[in-house]
Amino acid sequence: MAKQVSRALEIPLPRFPRRLETMNYLVEYEKEDGHDSMLLELARLNFDLARSLHLKELKTLSMWWRELYDNVKLTYSRDRLVESYLWTCIVFHEEEYSRARIIFAKVFGLQALMDDTYDVHASLEECRKLNEAIQRLDQWLVISYYGNNHYVDEPAHMHSHTYKLICKWDSSAVSIVPKYLHMFYIKLLSNFDELEDSLEPHEKYRISYIRNAFKLTSQYYLHEAQWCNDKYVPGFEEHMEVSIMSCGCALLPPMLLMGVHDGEGVATREVFEWVATCPDVMKAGAEVARFLNDIASYTAGKKKKDACSAVECYMAEHGVDGDAAVAAVAALAERAWRTMNQLCVEMDPALLMVKFTRTLEVIYLGGRESYTFGGDLNGLIAGLFLDAGPLNINV
């Protein structure tokens, strides 16, 4: 009981990921007087079967990531495949979500390469070129039966008996990006094609939502790069309008939904339309992500190319010191959590965003930034995938 109370004081139980709580309780339940040995054995077996599947998926993803990371040669980017898979594995661990986990981890990896390029390496002009190329998405490739294939933005007023249309990324845009990004752009195209191939015929429409979200996220990354280049300190509200979008408000929901089978009505076309509007529950989840990330970043210290964080914008606007700004931003994270709690009961797909947001409480526990500094998650990774025993999230 003392250990359970201690965990709840660090992270309230409603915000603690269920999968991680299960890991702890499997050990703690055995020590309870009058526990059911058969029930405990079945629970352990269920956990181990899921872990076995997760390790197979992780092996497949590790091979995919190593080939991608070694080919794009963006050595400035974080090598964090296991950490990204960890997130999705905590969000939905069940066998039926295997495809969803793999798709999420792959899109997350591609997004991380793009994010680090904008954030820590590319010049402003290179950022503009990359964004220009990424916007060449969802153009229509006109395959003419008489030759002269070309791209168009709109396929209207064309006679279908003379051509066929394929909605895809414009591969010729590789010439726009800097040379060191050529392979990244090529791999981006091929991976989106492979992701589309992994969908059932009636699910193909989903790829356009993830592409559009990827494009939109790129635009917000460029916006932040412009701020950083200009040494511009926006007002707090102006900062939040941009930073919650760059933090995943547009991209995370379709990432979470893309690989989910629609048998239970969680990932229908109507749901994809709904999340594309960035409803309040998604904004609240992105606010939690932004606030926790910026508190951790401020605590760790500003890097040369970092745009102003929410903490710094709050300090500049309200004329307060860092401690006061951190406290204010933490209070805003609490308010965002309350918004999520109120809204998540209205639509089942919102629960996926809530589950993802729970993982952030672990990633950013105590003001640390465990995705950037992956060593902070070693204990968690070992506990979830390798060791049998209680989890110490402070490791």
- What would the CATH topology be? Farnesyl Diphosphate Synthase
Measure the end-to-end span: 20 Å
Overall average pLDDT: 84
H and E string: HHHHHHEEEHHHHHHHHHH
Number of structural domains: 1
CATH homologous superfamily designation: Farnesyl Diphosphate Synthase
Seen as an oligomer or otherwise, the chain set is: single chain
Keywords: Metal-binding
InterPro entries: Isoprenoid_synthase_dom_sf (IPR008949), Terpene_synth_N_sf (IPR036965), Terpene_synthase-like (IPR050148), Terpene_synthase_metal-bd (IPR005630)
Domain Terpene synthase metal-binding: 67-338
GO molecular function: magnesium ion binding; terpene synthase activity
Question: Care to give the gist of this entry?
Answer:
GO terms for molecular function: magnesium ion binding; terpene synthase activity. It comes from Oryza brachyantha. The protein is mainly alpha-helical and 395 residues long.
Which keywords apply here?
395 residues, mainly alpha, Farnesyl Diphosphate Synthase, 3-stranded antiparallel sheet, 3 strands, 4% strand
Can you characterise this structure?
This protein is mainly alpha-helical and 395 residues long. It has a single domain (63-136, 177-381), classed as Farnesyl Diphosphate Synthase (Orthogonal Bundle). Helices cover 63% and strands 4% of the residues. It has helices at 2-10, 18-30, 37-72, 81-91, 98-121, 124-134, 182-197, 206-230, 236-249, 252-258, 269-276, 280-300, 310-318, 322-343, 350-363, 378-385, and strands spanning 139-144, 150-152, 163-168. Strands 2-1-3 form a three-stranded antiparallel sheet, with no helix packed on it. The relative contact order is 0.12.
